[in-house]
Amino acid sequence: MSYPVEVYIYDLSGGWCQNIFVNWLSPTDEALHSGVVVHGREYFYGKDGLEDQKPDLKNTIRKAEVGRTKMSKTEVAGLINNLRRQETWRKQLYDAVNHNCHHFSDTLVKCLCGPQARLPQEVYDFNKQIAATWYSQTMARTFTSSGSS
């Protein structure tokens, strides 16, 4: 048996990126956050490290099925516990530009679905756009140091 694996995408800016006054500050119209949903749980990485929750359907702006997994709910829980113990996903290493929720989502979908699995292209594009702008890197350091994700 196989189970669907989805990526939920959120706009953390609450629409502020679309404001004409601040539009020149951000290279995109949204501040994207991603989480991976499998077996009715959403897994994501942020300022508090690896977290899980019931999927947030109210604030999801887009979702996409990225593959299927043969892992049971128990096996997924074991995988997440193993990832939580890895140095890579400690909360202190979170960086809003260079080591964020999208990097974790990419890793998790590959663990669940195989190395061919990919996030929606807009997630990769968003990370590239953010990393390419000086202002965004400065803001990311501010968000990272202030505890925002």
From TrEMBL:
One of its GO terms (molecular function) is peptidase activity. Pfam families: Peptidase_C97. Residues 3-127 form the PPPDE domain. Transmembrane segments: none annotated. One of its GO terms (biological process) is protein modification by small protein removal. The keyword Hydrolase applies. Gene3D superfamilies: PPPDE domains. PROSITE patterns: PPPDE (PS51858). InterPro entries: PPPDE_dom, PPPDE_sf. Keywords: Hydrolase, Protease. It comes from the Eukaryota. The keyword Amino-acid biosynthesis does not apply. Belongs to the DeSI family. This is Peptidase C97 domain containing protein. The lineage of its organism: Eukaryota, Metazoa, Ecdysozoa, Arthropoda, Hexapoda.
